[in-house]
Amino acid sequence: MATMAIYRRRRRMLHHGILIALQLLLVIIVMLPFLWMFSVSIKPANEPFSIPPRLWPENPTLDNYESALYPEFGRYFLNSVIVSVLTMILSISVGLLAAYGFGRFNFPGLRALLIAIILAQMFPIATMIIPLYKIMNSLGLINTYAALVLAYLTLTLPVSIWMLRGFIRNIPPDLEEAAMVDGCTRLQAFWRLVVPLARPGIAATAVWIAVVTWQEFLFALAFTTTRDMRTISVGMSDFQGQFGIRYGELMASSVMVSVPIIVLFFFLQRYFVAGLTAGATKG
Amino acid sequence: MAANRRIRNLFLAPAIIYLLFMSIYPLIYSLYLSTTRKNLSRPYQKGFIGFDNYSNLITNDLFRTAIENTIVLAVASILIELIIAFFIARLFVAISDVPGSSIIRTVFILPMMLTPVVSGLLWSYILSPSLGIANHILRELGQAPYPWLASSDTALKSVIMINVWQWSPFLMLLMLAGLMSIPREQYEAAAMDGANILQVVRHIEMPFLRNVVLIGIIFRVIDNFRLFDIIYVTTRGGPGSATEVVTMYAYREMFGFFNVGYGSAAAVLILIMANIVTLVLNRFIRGEEGNVR
Question: Which of A27, A172, B167, B201 lies 20 to 30 A from B267 at CA?
Answer without folding.
Answer: B167
